[in-house]
Amino acid sequence: TLRGAWDRVREDPILKFMVVAVTAYGMSTLEGPLLSTKFFNSLSHFTDWTIAHVHVGGLGWNGFLTFGMIYWLVPRLFGTKLYSKSLANAHFWIGTLGMVFYAVPLYFAGFTQSLMWKQFTPDGYLVYKNFLDTVLQIKYAYWLRGLGGTLYLAGAIMMVYNVWRTVASGKLIANEEAEAMPLVKVETEPEVGYWHRWIERRPVQMLVLSFVLVAIGGVIEMVPTFLVKSNIPTIASVKPYTPLELQGRDIYISEGCYTCHSQMIRPFRSETERYGEYSKAGEFVYDHPFQWGSKRTGPDLHRVGGKYPDSWHFYHMMDPTSMSAGSLMPAYPHMYENTIDTASTAAKIEAMQKLG
User: Fold this and answer.
1) Residue 231 falls within a domain, yes or no?
2) What is the dihedral of CA 195, 197, 200, 201, to 10 degrees?
3) pLDDT tens across 76-120, in order?
């Protein structure tokens, strides 16, 4: 669609949105498989690099493609012209600028996190033993991310206004007459044949073969889960949650702690030096669901249980900066007023017993 129409891109805001959307799609689909490799994943996982990656796809591909489609569809659905082409162009530039301010600082933050977490002194010690050293270095990225998100949202609001005025100036075309040439039965094969035509003309065979292939893939995916107990070594020290621990785990989930903390120490020297022994599969047999997390705005918590006294946690939840200067963690004053609903404890224990 875009090929041969580059001269129109300068004038048409819809094509501008499409060009950026396709570009963002290409970037994110190239980067995704790259980040799945062991080398790059060891660098990017738990950092803001991953956040930047998914937002290039989310804001650029999904968002801009949606904007372009809306600008194209609405005038045709209501039999009118777009209210303001200049407003759509302004939306494009503001949205693009917002996306740049959102993603680029997070890429730099991700690189910074990965390099600082893995840096050692010549004597073999971690250069940045305190996790907060990294946090303080990337605060600027979160402010710029907020600015970028605000710009992107402002552009979307401009689009809503533009679409509203467009709809108001037209009338919905509920029914539209259409004409088409009658279908002609193909008696002979075209000069240039395609292998997939054989499949397209045999829907029953295609359905059967598709089912067989999906079934094979399903078996490959599901059988390991059925054998999981026999595949994972039992760890004697790992016990089911106590009722109090179960309630605490649910508070951890409900407060969204897993969005900023991980509970998965990878078998890298930089992680075992910082957090302790790397995590084993058998340690998560009673976790339903597991709390591995995907982002470390704060440190990993898998080995933190019992590390600090109760008084530390008391003050940390009331004012995180009182125990960890520079922390980005919000305060949780409601925890000092609310009480646990113990009426649900029995049901939670029963659910965990059924899950194993």
Assistant:
1) no
2) -120
3) 999 999 999 999 999 999 999 999 999 999 999 999 999 999 999
- Determine the 3-state secondary structure of 276 from DSSP: coil
Across the range 257-279, mean pLDDT stands at: 95
CB contact at 8 A, 95 and 151: yes
pTM reported for the whole predicted model: 0.83
Domain span including residue 323: 243-355
158 with 306, same domain: the answer is: no
Residues near 23 by beta carbon (within 8 Å), at least 6 away in sequence: 60
pLDDT per residue as tens digits for the range 111-123: 999 999 999 999 9
pLDDT of residue 174: 85
Q: By C-alpha distance, which of 90, 109, 224, 84 is closest to 156?
A: 90
Query: What amino acid occupies position 211?
Result: F
Domain end call among 169, 184, 199? 169
CA distance 32 to 356: 34
Name 356's Cβ contacts closer than 8 Å, sequence gap at least 6. Answer: 229, 285, 286
Confidence band for 222, pLDDT divided at 50, 70 and 90: confident
Q: CB within 8 A of 51, min separation 6: which ones? A: 106, 110, 295
